[in-house]
Specification:
Elements: H1 2-9, H2 15-21, H3 33-42, H4 45-59, H5 64-89
Transmembrane segments: 46-68
Keywords: Membrane, Transmembrane, Transmembrane helix
């Protein structure tokens, strides 16, 4: 009975032992972005859902205006080229 009460008040974490072994200094792991991305995207459902929601929102943006602008620019170049050729002939 007393063991149960004592266990209730004792800390179950082992970080105290780690801190004393490392003399209170922080230990940083190597930064591996491929592993961080793998863990963050494939193993975390919240990150997976957020990234997919952003990707779907970006995919829904129409690109028609950009294509029309590129076509207009191409036509303007061709027209100015045709004008320069016709001016050089005369």
């Amino acid at each position: 009975m007393l063991d149960r009460i004592r266990n209730f008040f004792t800390k179950q974490s082992r970080t105290t032992g780690i801190i004393t072994v490392n003399h209170g200094q922080a230990q940083w792991t190597d930064t591996r972005y491929d592993k961080l991305a793998d863990e963050g995207y494939t193993k975390n459902v919240y990150v997976y859902r957020c990234v997919n929601a952003i990707a779907m929102a970006c995919a829904g943006i129409p690109c028609l205006l950009t294509l029309l602008e590129k076509q207009k620019t191409q036509r303007d170049r061709e027209a100015s080229f045709d004008r320069s050729i016709s001016e050089s002939k005369s």
